[in-house]
Amino acid sequence: MILARPGGFQVLHAINYEAPTTLDEAVSILKTHGENARPLCGGTDLIIQLRAGVRRTEHIVDVKKIKELQVLSFDAKKGLRLGAAVPCIEIHESDVMRRHYPGLTEAAHIIGSLQIQNRASVGGNLCNGSPAGDATPALIALGARARIVGPSGEREVPVEDFVVSPGRTMLKPGELLVELLVPPPPPQSSDAYLRFIPRNEMDIAVVGVGAALTLDGDKVKAARIALGAVAPTPILAGKAADALIGRKLDDAALEAAGRAASQACSPIDDMRGTAEFRLHIAAVLTRRALSIAAERAKKN
Amino acid sequence: MAASTTTGNFKVIGTRPIRHDGVDKVTGRAKFGADYAFPGMLHGKVLRSPHAHAIIKSINVDKALKLPGVQAIVTSKDLPPAENKLEQAGEMTINPMYLSMNILARDKVLYDGHAIAAVAATSPHIAEEALRLSEVEYEVLPPVMAVDAATRPGAPILLNDLRNPEEGDKPTNVAQHYQFKRGDVAAGFKAADYVIEREFNTAMVHQGYIEPHNAVGIYNPDGQATIYCSTQGPVIVRSLSAQVLGMPVGKIKVVPAEIGGGFGGKTTIYLEPLSLLLSKKTGAPVKLTMSRAEVLRASGPTPGAKIKVKMGATRDGKLVAAEIWMAYQAGAFPGSPVGAGAMCIIAPYTVENFVIDAYDVVVNRPKTASYRAPGATQAAFASETVIDELAEKCGIDPIDFRIKNGVKEGSPQVVGPPFKRIGFIQTCEAIKNSDHYKSKLTGKFRGRGVASGFWFNAGMQSSAIVNIHADGTASVVTGSPDIGGTRASMAMITAEVLGLPVTDVRPIVTDTDSIGHTDVTGGSRVTFATGMAVYEAAKDAERQLIERAAKVWEKKPDEVEFRAGMLHAKGGGVPPLSIKQLAPRFARTGGPITGRASVSARGVGPGFATSVVDVEVDPDTGKVQVLRCTVAQDAGKAIHPSYVEGQMQGGTAQGIGWALNEEYFYDDKGTLRNSGFLDYRIPTCLDLPMIETIVVEEPNPGHPLGVRGVGEVSIVPPVAAVANAIYRAVGVRMTQTPMSPPKLLKAMLKHRSATQHSAAAD
Amino acid sequence: MSKKTAVEATINGEPVEFLCEPRQSLLETLRDVLELTGSKEGCLTGDCGACTVLVDGRAVCSCLMLGVEAQGKNITTVEGLATKGVLSVLQNKFLEDAALQCGICTPGFLVSAKALLDRNPNPTEHEVRYALAGNLCRCTGYDKIVRAVLDAARDIRSPGEAKAAAR
CA-CA-CA-CA torsion for C140, C146, C148, C150, nearest 10 degrees? Predict the structure, then answer.
């Protein structure tokens, strides 16, 4: 039963805490308690939500000790394996990440202050299911897949299908996100992530745009554009990206992509921005993110 | 009584010693209110209304009381009845009924977060659980959130007893109407070559101190009570708590803890009487702290305002008329600073003809409290923007326009006697001659804006004691909580008078029993008024030192003088004595030396500040970056320049936050949506540049050292300065705060399409 | 329901054993169980940084970490910045440069600044501001804080120069 109260409480309700060291152990605990258990990575979303009464979970399962969730490895053929519990700061500090996935790295580096980045993980950010999560559009733009482990075994899901409604993912009771798998970037490709916030740091994205491009000379060979905070879930702006294929990325193409991305949005008015504002910014950031991704791609 | 200003070569004053409480603050040893713990202490929490406006039909705490660990629950039934009238409680004029109703609601709740009951339990977890088990039945009423809604015919009435003289016996939400006027406004506007008329709206904002409110109450079986709390005014906590609880003032001792910011928001009471009420019922010390959400929902933000300004000037840049209408949100109970705002709005300028109508309006928001120059910032946003427009119309540099019309010694005030020696023009000139203003601002979508501000500053009462110890060192004791480094200033003044090294003077801040009446740390008054008391107390100690030396030398006191820290026999003949040398002889020459003084400080010097801000606007998103800012302020005499600069920088930063991103966001039910620092956006380190300060020293003739209060006025100009800078950057005049990206973008797009239209029409 | 858990950690260089309930944050544990009240509560949502401590050398908001998560970790709080009663360079610079007014945010800033300088001994002004963006101050406008951190960085890099300049 959700007992949310505006402003929340100062203390947490009574919880049990376990820190399994293997995937099997974790899955078993999660399966036993179902909705009443939740994995804990950085805690930078969960602890706030527990205090606010927005989530009331009595069994906290600390998954940071499970080695599969701490993997950060890159292979030129297989791509990236990013464990669900790897703190954002490690992504920022990884040369490999900066070189091959600058957009995802940017996204990880703006999920809050350094204090937050030292604890929060991209996997946790995704599992929080917020439409405004910074990592998600960057992952979607890269065509990332989520590897999930559960009572009935393993499965992989494209990240654009992971969040199903605000705050809810498609994880079934007992399932745990283990890692994100990102394909290796083809030659002449790169990514970028931009978000709009009213200050320079510390804010939740009002709009977030992840863009990944593969160029062929000066024409677009492949493109993916994903947006956050402009719909109930992060979205893949398929039409906007498809319209770029085979085109030169000139001002007209950028304008068109921006407009199309904006049309793919269905934002709300809230205290962080009006719908009108978000639609406008979505177009602006799409143009800017594409430009940056293209500049980077040309250098690869 | 205050002697005439000394301008002199000071040995200590004007230097930058390390503050005496500094080590405790950088090691975590300093005890702030929430750091206190006592044996057997219980933890309290407050049950608060989730509704903005509702009748309380019933409160049922049976389940909560049965929870193991819950020791007591109090509601308004535990408070004595309070009268609906105006009364003096110490220095403040309060309405006891409204004060008590804000502590614990009676039959109605009037804002989201309004306190209804308080629980004491053996752990904070149990206290929270008890809140969950408390059942309150409400009849929800429509909320009234803005001045327009509150004054519309047929608006829901918040306080059934509230009347104002102009509306007779009609229930109303308008608590007060002030009017100030001079000359003939109609004639003034007739004579004007340019008239600008604009309407402004400012959002409610919070002082944003990082430390939430706290109180530990200990009620002893003999009826003596002690409150430990972080407060700007221990004397206020004592008198208001006594008022609410129906206790004699002398039965309450308030011990001020270190305070983590206040800016005016900690000059009243919220948790303090509750802590005593619960302690009385349980027989144990009870500690209450607010969460950040409670601070934003249920302490005292500053009003949002609606202000209409019409000003006229002749083409040579002389202001000739002003007509102003202003209405401030008082919150749930009357008492916004709209009167003060009205007296500040054109205060820096001589305007022969004006009429200012100011209204205090209740709305379903928390009762507003002081915020650094309360009422002046909202007002200056309006007036300083209009003045900027007038200056532009006249083709005159905005600073020159202000100098031309600026007040000086002998100029009239809006209310009260003419100004004595002041430094407003000097702050304008300081900005005009600053590196910042002289530098060229290049680049697209960049603009520079200027604005000025005024604040009265306060005098009021302070007491001080200077003890000279057996080793010739001294301690100076006051009752002014140290929010910004004033302990150091008190030690410096004492050291200066007594010729001691500043490290030989220990400044102490003490409780309400240990020092005479001392009014609030606020109103920019500590260095001024408490400093005056300290000066007098040190002088008193000096007189006693002279008497003792005279005794030792078997001379008369008027044959002895005190110079540069040494006692000299006039005419020589005996080697001079230092205080260190004389100290061992105190016991046999009359006993310990204690210098004392209590002042009701006159000679207050008002504060003026002028700021210049450079901004860059992102034309596609409306995001504003502050590139550079400089503030010039008249400090009279800066006792400790670093802390004077600190006040100027802090006020400027708050003004910038007010300008760009801070606002209370209520939904249509009157629930506060942004009750945390995530969405109540104060500037971070990354949002601001270095803040350049120019301390103008135009000594205040009313203070022995020339001091003018500095704590407040720097917050007044920046909001308008940012608005004026945005105008020069992108051609848009913003008339609402915050000038956040969605609002600015909307205004820019409107402006662009309008200019495109007119271009097309040509 | 919430049984206390025994936790072993190193706090300010000393091995410590304590009991806390799983529901108690690291901040609560430090303040209420271990009586280390130097770390402050400002918001409980990780937005103000007043509760910042170092965990294995990284700055974190202790309000968003559970006390039980401290198991096996090396924690530094403001109380651990001085060495045997001798203030660190950072602490001294905060005092000399008047980088505090009310002082409530100071512990958090000192810890965050230490984490920065331990990793980056020669930060630019922008790098300092970025590293401290998670610590809110309402009193100072940040100017003197940033200057103090830059001054401390310079003094730590070249203590000889600092002494010469002071003479």
Answer: -170
